From TrEMBL:
It comes from Actinoplanes xinjiangensis. This is Lipoprotein-anchoring transpeptidase ErfK/SrfK. It comes from the Bacteria. The keyword Nucleotide-binding does not apply. Gene3D superfamilies: L,D-transpeptidase catalytic domain-like (2.40.440.10). PROSITE patterns: LD_TPASE. CDD domains: YkuD_like (cd16913). One of its GO terms (molecular function) is peptidoglycan L,D-transpeptidase activity.
Length: 251
């Protein structure tokens, strides 16, 4: 190979590395640059290095998040070593998108850490669901919720936000007693999508604000991400059991 030139094979390798880093295709292909484009090896090395570094920043809670994602499963391959990699980045971004964490750029920051920790700490057996039928479970302590069917997990745990101080969501066993796809709240003058009431003026509904804003909380309702609210709505029926246990920290 002539000095200062890169073969089509090496160009292809550079392109593959860039794509794998999450930056997408790069204009170093034989079709656009010729079979032997005049790109120095030094420039190629610099580009690849920058591409790998730019794929995802390493967050303060990198190792902890890696550990929790490995425990939870379902987000791809992660290596628990505290060092960011393209695979780790992909898994973290997938996790962030699933649980509405913004921005979803793969940084293992405090919100991602908090959500992963809460989900990993959730024990579905603690709900003590009925052996027959559907039970909606709400863990106030971990601020998580899931659905059991005939004593087994039907919908995996997801995050929720319940009542903050002064508006605590009560613990107990209740039943869904009203369902409307879009309920108007007179006290707070806001629409509540996928409303499923289970006690007083409290029920499941899609959140109307950023669910990870801990300083806000609900006025006693069980806030859900849109996808989870829709899922719960598709399952719910009048008379189904809702079990609420634990206590939200700070209430």
């Amino acid at each position: 190979m002539a000095r200062g030139r890169v073969s089509a094979r090496l160009i292809g390798a550079v392109t593959a590395a860039l794509v794998g880093s999450g930056l997408g295709a790069f204009a170093l292909t034989p079709a656009s640059a010729g079979a032997s484009a005049p790109v120095t090896a030094a420039v190629t090395t610099t580009v690849v290095t920058k591409a790998a570094a730019a794929s995802c920043a390493t967050g303060k809670y990198q190792k902890q998040v890696e550990g929790y994602l490995k425990q939870l499963g379902g987000y791809g391959t992660v290596t628990v070593d505290g060092k960011q990699s393209p695979a780790d980045c992909t898994a973290i971004v997938k996790f962030q998108k699933r649980f509405g964490i913004q921005p979803a750029k793969g940084l293992a920051g405090p919100t991602t850490y908090d959500v992963a920790k809460r989900l990993a700490a959730t024990r579905t057996a603690a709900c003590k669901a009925k052996k027959k039928g559907i039970t909606f479970c709400i863990d106030l302590t971990n601020q998580t919720t899931w659905v059991m069917k005939n004593g087994a997990v039907h919908v995996k745990p997801t995050i929720t936000r319940t009542g903050y101080k002064g508006y605590r969501t009560p613990a107990g066993t209740f039943t869904i007693n009203k369902r409307t796809k879009k309920e108007w709240s007179d006290p707070y003058e806001v629409w509540l999508p996928y409303w499923q009431r289970f006690i007083g003026g409290r029920g499941f509904h899609q959140t109307t604000t950023y669910i990870h804003d801990k300083w806000r909380g609900s006025h006693g309702c069980v806030n859900l991400l849109q996808s989870d609210a829709q899922k719960y709505w598709s399952i719910g029926k009048i008379g189904m059991t809702v079990k609420v246990f634990g206590r939200r920290p700070g209430t």
